[in-house]
Amino acid sequence: MNRLDPIGVIDSGVGGLTVLKWLQEKMPHERFIFIGDTARTPYGNRSREEIQGFVGEMTAWLNRRNIKQLVVACNTITVLGTDVIKNGYDFSVIGMKKGAHMVEGVTRNKKVGFLATDFTVASGAHKKEIQEMDPEIQVFGQGCPKFVPLIEGEQFGSPELAAAIKEYTDKLKEYDVDTVMLSCTHYPFVEKEIREAFGPGVTILDPAERTVQAAMEDLKQRRLNRETGLGRAEVCFTADLERGKRLAARMLDMNQCDFRLIHL
Ligand code: DGL
């Protein structure tokens, strides 16, 4: 393993592009290989066994490309646990941050909400981490099964998306939360709309930047960070390459990316 090896990035679909954007910005010398499993998205309403199987295929593919680190740009996959994802490979695994250290000092009334897939909410991982840090914080998870199909389907500005946003944000508003985490990497595609639905009294947090910081620290510690050369991303989808490109154009600098359709 050496500094010139690429960094793998995975998601069930286009959501991970919201993390890849930060990775490219903060680590401009690195080469990234992103896989969005657009053929089988969404993962958030599947069984643990099924998700584990898909992840195993992605990590085996990336291992053949000699990645030095895997950034799991998906909360649903992250809650499977690092050991399960790592599966004995040599690369390090950086999962999505669950937000404990982000909400600290932000919430005033100690009522924190998070929007995520049903799988992520059911895992209880976010609530556990936040309450281990501060048991006084009440944590409310809201599953949002309609969001990923609408985002993958490019239904921006549609009445269906507006209705889904209202439905999920209204539920969290009932608990009087003052801080909300976007705990699914697809949701920053509609962050502006979610922010507007909550209004100015609620702080919206995206764990992507903190996750990228953790990835940078890991590489520095292992002396595997690249400090020279021009970075680039190879953006791979398992279906619908053209749709993937259109969604990527909303997030990434297209001049720094090459796109590919792959089969796992
Ligand atoms: N983007 C994903 C996440 O962060 C998964 C969405 C899905 O496939 O349901 O949870």
Give the SSE layout.
Layout: E1 7-11, H1 17-26, E2 31-36, H2 48-64, E3 69-72, H3 75-78, H4 82-86, E4 92-94, H5 100-103, E5 111-116, H6 118-123, H7 125-133, E6 138-143, H8 147-152, H9 159-173, E7 179-182, H10 191-198, E8 203-205, H11 208-221, E9 232-237, H12 241-249, E10 257-261
Parallel strand pairs: 1-2, 1-3, 2-9, 3-4, 5-6, 5-7, 7-8, 9-10
Helix pairs in contact: 1-11, 9-10
Bound molecules: D-glutamic acid.
**Residue-averaged pLDDT, rounded?**
97
What structural class do helix, strand and pairing data support?
alpha/beta
Radius of gyration: 18 Å
The helix/strand order is EHEHEHHEHEHHEHHEHEHEHE
CATH class of the largest domain: Alpha Beta
Provide a count of the helices. Answer: 12
Reported CATH architecture of the largest domain: 3-Layer(aba) Sandwich
Alpha-carbon distance between the two ends: 23 Å
- Please tally the β strands and state the result: 10
Q: Low-confidence segments, ≥5 residues, pLDDT <50?
A: none
- The neighbouring-strand order within the major sheet is 4-3-1-2-9-10
List the domain count as a whole number: 2
EC number: 5.1.1.3
Binding site for substrate: 11-12, 43-44, 75-76, 185-186
Keywords: Cell shape, Cell wall biogenesis/degradation, Isomerase, Peptidoglycan synthesis
Pathway: Cell wall biogenesis; peptidoglycan biosynthesis
